[in-house]
């Protein structure tokens, strides 16, 4: 049995069915992200785990214990919110100690734990400050320390980085992941940011309309999406209308593309949507790539280590990412080029 076990969770608000038959098992020490757009049900799932919302049906288990009807303060869960939610009239140290004080932990033990937590989040010298004297990133670190201080069984993070600027977000997400690994705490992270989910998680749950469209490792979610929604929500896609030529071959603008993963479950002559990531396309003729299609460059975007081309290929405008090379300038807009692609990189889109 999983350490955190969610079985057939449903949540309705009036006639609105927000979460639909949601099941998920999370192992002890695992970091799982719930990823999806606003309104997909991810925060509602988190609130049910925390005890802030009662499931309409289904069950929630933690470490073999059914907590579905338990109050929030009985579940031993730590929670970090988007808006920090620090007590403005308490110092940093008092904020971190709050949960320990509520639990009746002795003063000396509280002080030792606060010192440990402030050292863990890299703010050992700021215990006497108040929240208004801290930056947003520092406040969120303190919120994390406060959630972790009582040694919760599960840590819940509800879009904790979305209020921060981009540079702080990147550094803080790495710190959160390092702390989570060091403590080995089971963690659920809610985000609408695909980069956060892919970079931080052991597994990602992509949610759509209250259901889990796909659950998998970041590698699986990105490279082998199972639905059109997952494919389009995670990363950038080039999508083509292809024609089924035979059980393993498609045609794109008259060019054959042989797939690597078994037979196509569609009839000969049927139209099917196929997609390739920008990094799956190669500029020029490349060894090992079975399909080469002429294209016209529309635009070139220099992004430092990466160069992104827009090109007209087989009746479709595509994006192509290639590494910058000092000895190989990119083509100019209007240039005629060849683009190589391989069936092993193709993603068939269904649903």
3D structure, described in words:
- There is one protein chain.
- The mean pLDDT is 93.
- The two termini are 31 Å apart.
- Helix 2 (92-102) runs parallel beside helix 4 (136-148).
- The radius of gyration is 25 Å and the shape is globular.
- The strands form 4 sheets. It has a 6-stranded mixed sheet with strand order 6-7-8-3-9-10, sandwiched between helices.
- By secondary structure, it is an alpha+beta fold.
- 24% of the residues lie in helices and 34% in strands.
Question: Which features does this protein show?
Answer:
6-stranded mixed sheet; 351 residues; alpha+beta
Strand order of the largest sheet: 6-7-8-3-9-10
Nearest-integer average pLDDT: 93
Oligomeric status: single chain
Helix-strand topology string: EEEHEEEHHHEHEHEEHHEEEEEEEEEE
Rounded to an integer in angstroms, the radius of gyration calculated over CA atoms is 25 Å
**Range of strand content:** 25-35%
Global shape: globular
Helical fraction equals 10-25%
Extended strand count: 20
Terminus-to-terminus distance? 31 Å
Uncertain spans, ≥5 residues at pLDDT below 50?
none
Taking the sheet with the most strands, its summary is: 6 strands, mixed
Q: How many separate helices?
A: 8
Structural class: alpha+beta
């Amino acid at each position: 049995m999983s350490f955190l076990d969610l079985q057939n969770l449903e949540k309705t608000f009036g006639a609105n069915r927000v979460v639909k038959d949601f099941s998920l098992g999370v192992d002890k020490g695992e970091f799982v992200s719930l990823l999806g757009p606003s309104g997909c049900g991810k925060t509602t799932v988190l609130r049910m785990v925390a005890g802030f919302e009662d499931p309409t049906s289904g069950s929630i288990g933690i470490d073999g214990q059914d907590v579905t009807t338990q109050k929030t303060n009985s579940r031993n869960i730590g929670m970090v919110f988007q808006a920090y939610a620090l007590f403005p009239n308490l110092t940093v140290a008092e904020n971190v100690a709050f949960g320990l004080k509520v639990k009746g932990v002795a003063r000396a033990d509280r002080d030792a734990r606060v010192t440990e937590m402030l050292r863990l989040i890299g703010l050992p010298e700021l215990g006497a400050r108040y929240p208004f004297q801290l930056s947003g990133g520092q406040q969120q670190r303190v919120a994390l320390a406060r959630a972790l201080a009582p040694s919760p069984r599960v840590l819940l993070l509800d879009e904790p980085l979305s209020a921060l600027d981009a540079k702080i977000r990147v550094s803080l997400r790495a710190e959160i992941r390092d702390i989570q690994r060091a403590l080995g705490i089971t963690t659920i992270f809610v985000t609408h940011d695909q980069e956060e989910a892919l970079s931080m998680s052991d597994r990602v749950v992509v949610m759509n309309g209250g259901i889990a469209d796909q659950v998998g490792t970041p590698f699986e979610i990105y490279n082998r999406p199972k639905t059109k929604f997952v494919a389009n929500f995670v990363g950038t896609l080039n999508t083509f209308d292809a024609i089924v030529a035979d059980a393993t071959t498609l045609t794109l603008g008259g060019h054959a593309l042989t797939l690597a993963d078994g037979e196509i479950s569609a009839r000969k002559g049927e139209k099917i949507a196929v997609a390739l990531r920008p990094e799956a396309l190669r500029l020029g003729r490349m060894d090992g790539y079975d399909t080469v299609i002429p294209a016209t460059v529309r635009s070139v975007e220099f992004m430092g280590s990466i160069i992104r081309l827009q090109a007209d290929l087989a009746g479709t405008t595509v994006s192509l990412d290639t590494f910058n090379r000092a000895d190989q300038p990119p083509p100019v807009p209007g240039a005629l080029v060849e683009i190589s692609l391989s069936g092993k990189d193709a993603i068939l889109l269904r649903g």
